[in-house]
Amino acid sequence: MSDTTKYFLTEDRMPKAWYNLAADLPGPVAPPVHPGTGQPMGPEDLAPLFPMGVLEQEVSQERWIDIPEPVREVYRLWRPSPLIRARRLEKALGTPAKIFFKYEGVSPAGSHKPNTAVAQAFYNQQEGITKLSTETGAGQWGSSLAFAGDIFGLEVEVYMVRISYNQKPYRRALMETYGATCIPSPSPNTAAGRAILEKDPDSNGSLGIAISEAVEIAASRDDTKYALGSVLNHVCLHQTVIGEEAMLQMEMADSEPDIVIGCCGGGSNFAGLAFPYMREKLKGKAIRFIGVEPTSCPTLTKGPMAYDFGDTGKLTPLMKMYTLGSGFMPPGTHAGGLRYHGMAPMVSSALEYGLMEARSYQQTECFTAAVQFARNEGIVPAPESSHAIKAVMDEALRCKAEGKAETILFNLSGHGHFDMQAYTDYFAGKMTDVPFDDAALQASLADLPKVAV
Asked: Which parts of the sequence carry N6-(pyridoxal phosphate)lysine (predicted)?
């Protein structure tokens, strides 16, 4: 087995349950709070936006939650996903480290996002919902929900961050191929969108703005619910199928990770791989976890842990998380899926409890790492995933300098086949690193809501 490159699980070994880290954290995750009353919110308060099936998961303290068979049936279209040993990258770096990656780009939408999209579409269909509204940054989530909506017979309306809408026309085309409607955000369709356009007709948009629009649409219709592709507890839960598979595959490779790495925007792909291994860390295993984000949107590395709105229009409940402030407008970098002002409360709690580390990189150094990875391993990474790859290479070179043969596991959360304009800009020398605007951060944080909880 010493020369094996790919580790495959048979379909019958695909996990039958999602893992809930909330059951094992040192303390509780702070509940969402009503922005009007300042009181904790329960499932019934969120029922206008989400089906009860996911709301029960959102607040659950159960360690294991069964994956419904109709969801597992759809998962079988691409799961279990492969675990790959990056032998050629190891050789190129001259490192004694072993590098493994879980490759989620094999899904129909080309990323990890269908793991939760399929689950959310199923629970909405079970409740008799006929339409879903959502937002998307880079388009991975929008195309995933479009795919899942088609599977379960749901109409899907996607508000895509305008800068990404313009940068990634083929993501839009993929959504439309699956039958969804894709609208650039901010749009004139909603009060939230119109308010932004009135202030800035040329707004690039942000995930916070797109969330406001999608939430407004869902709240105004009885037949429509809102679906979120990251951040919330139930989304992180659904993604743990990644880590549970990886554990079985690492056993096949006769290895255990010393370091687990993932990029962080809202937190879902990092959580999907890392949370099952955090369970082992909490049992005493020595594992490092590194969440990697853009220097231009440094939620974990520069933001405070505070209650904040999940959207720019301040329509959502308040969540306790690391945040740059709901009014923060990230620069229009190519890693659209990482341009979010907040971080999943569960991931935020993991950082606050000292279970993980966080670091940030500029986009050009991430693309340099992505190109080297592509030339060694053959897979062109999504811009988001390139942040994880940069951290992997840095850790592998540290191992080389220190003479340590550590094992590194990371999540290659998606391919970059719809992101080639970004690579074109990189090769043409048009890609720049935008200096972080600390004054804009302080202005945004000054508007954080005051919560007594």
From this structure: 113
Peptide bond into 449 cis (omega under 30): no
- Beta bridge partners, 85, equal 100
Residue 425: Cβ-neighbour burial (10 angstroms; 0-12, 13-18, 19+): middle
Could you give the dihedral angle defined by the CA atoms of residues 100, 334, 296 and 161, in that order, rounded to the nearest 10 degrees? -120
Is-contact 82 24, C-beta < 8 A?
no
Cβ neighbours for 47, distance < 8 A, ≥ 6 positions apart: 55
Each residue of 313-348: pLDDT tens digit?
888 889 999 999 999 988 777 776 788 899 999 999
Residues 189-221 pLDDT 10s: 999 999 999 999 999 998 889 989 999 999 999
**pLDDT tens for residues 126-138?**
999 999 999 998 7
Query: How far is Cα 335 from Cα 229, in angstroms, rounded to an integer?
Result: 16
Continuous H helices in 2-86: 43-46, 52-59, 69-75
Q: What's the CA gap between 413 and 401, in Å, rounded? A: 28
* Residue 63 identity (one-letter amino acid): R
Please state, in angstroms and rounded to a whole number, the distance separating the CA atoms of residues 3 and 1.
6
Quote the pLDDT of residue 178.
Answer: 98
CB–CB of 363/337 below 8 Å? no
- Give residues with Cβ within 8 angstroms of 44, minimum separation 6: none
DSSP-assigned letters across all residues of 358-410: EEEE-HHHHHHHHHHHHHHHS--B-HHHHHHHHHHHHHHHHHHHHT---EEEE
Spatial separation of the C-alpha atoms in residues 268 and 452, rounded to whole Å: 28
Q: φ, ψ for residue 73 (rounded to 5)?
A: -60, -40
User: Per-residue confidence at 1, pLDDT binned at 50, 70, 90?
Assistant: very low
Q: Which run of H or E residues covers position 306?
A: strand 305-309
What's residue 309's pLDDT?
92
**CB-CB contact of 233 with 319 (8 Å):** no
